[in-house]
Each structure stands twice: as C-alpha cells, then as structure tokens.
Please model this.
Amino acid sequence: MSNFYRYFKENMDSLGLPAPESLFGTLQITIGTLTVLLTNIDKFGKTVTVGELIGTGTRLEKLATMAAISAAFYVGACIGSLAVATGRTLGGGRDIADVLLLARQHRLERAWLAPVLLKAPPIYHPNAAGRYSCRYNSSKP
Model:
C-alpha cells in the first residue's frame, strides 16, 4: 500500500466513507476517479446521489454500499482526502486553500466545491470537530 493511499484511506475511514483501493490507490487513479464523478455531477446536478450515478460506469459500482450519500459531498470528501494525502506525502499543509489549489491544479474545481468544503471542514481537516458525523450529514439534502 502506497503512503498516498494509506493517508487517503485513513482520512476517508475517519469520515466513515469507503475508499476502495481500485478507485483511489494512487494520485493518478484518484484524479481519474474524481474526474469521472465530477463529469457525472456536472451532467446530473450537484444533488445527484452516488446511488443514482451507479450504472453510468463499472468503476462506480464499487460505491454501491453508499448509494444514498450525496455525490457532491462524497467528491468533496475525496478532494479533501486527496489534499490531506498529498500534503502528508509531500509534507505540506491541508487547509481549505490547499484543497482548493490542489483541485484547481488538477481541473477538479467546481463552483459548488468551496461551499461544500466550507460547510463541512471535517472532510479535509482531521482535527475539526464533528468528524464522525460526516457520513450521517452527507445524506442530508
């Protein structure tokens, strides 16, 4: 297991969200997975759930266990975890500016991303309060 995936998975696990290695095992695979998810969110809107996206691609079927979770929230958590893992791997920070810069650098930024991250700082900051309630909060409209 690479350090990147270990850090990514640790962050997602602490949020109570799955992070299959086949979808998030390396930085490049993670960016590819997020691009697929973001393309579908762009197509169906930010209120689409992960469950509604299943069937649009075989890679997404692995996310079936979290069907009711908002896709926008999950992608926000993944981008936050991407920033955490990259920051820990490279020794940098992980505040919202780091997350948004990383998203911009990899063409993952969307207009709704900053509000999602501002609403739920635990998805990218491991010391934020309420970290264990993220999965519950992610299924709210």
